[in-house]
Write a structure and sequence with these properties.
Distance between the termini: 20 Å
Low-confidence stretches: 15-19
Radius of gyration: 25 Å
Helix content: over 70%
Structural class: mainly alpha
Largest sheet: none
Strand content: under 5%
Number of helices: 7
Number of domains: 1
Amino acid sequence: MEELDLLKKAWQKDSHSYEQISEVEIYKMLHKKSSSIVKWILIISIIEVLSWTLISVVWNTDDYIRKMHAESTIVYFKILNFINYIVILWFIYHFYKNYIKISTTASAKQLMHDILKTRKVVQYYVYYNLAMAVVSLTAGFVIQFLFNPKMELLKNKIAHEDNYHTLCITLGVILLTFVIIVGLFWLFYRLLYGILLRKLNTNYKELKKIDL
């Protein structure tokens, strides 16, 4: 924001007529920066969905499920995957729509409104992805527990224990795994979109200071 800071300092020193020109210049700069940020949000979201698609093609979950003889669950995963893609594409569409709106808006008030709307959509997108991570992990653990032959010993031990010691340890390990993996996802999205959202928020605060 160095250019903006220099412009604001010059604006504060000079006359009222120059002040009006500076306000316009500040708005143009914030408009350009905001449009660029939203464009990057759109680009990153598209790269992200393409990356996850490539990973799912390389690592075929259907083959893994068949090895555990859990073929009956494949259809549910396909339905979940289909719904997930529909929702992700819906978010990407809104990122694109917000980018077009911010790129073509002509007033500071409308730009501020569009910035707030974009930030909310991105936040909902992150929350959705974290929720899907929890759902996917839960489904994975359930399938492992029900169908993986290696889990038979653990299930027998839990079934024949009176003090539930093994069950508590198992649940503790699962919970810890959940926290670590979801935490890593949260950190990933925090770094990926958090920086861009903070820049958008800075632009919003700067827009509040000018009156066009």
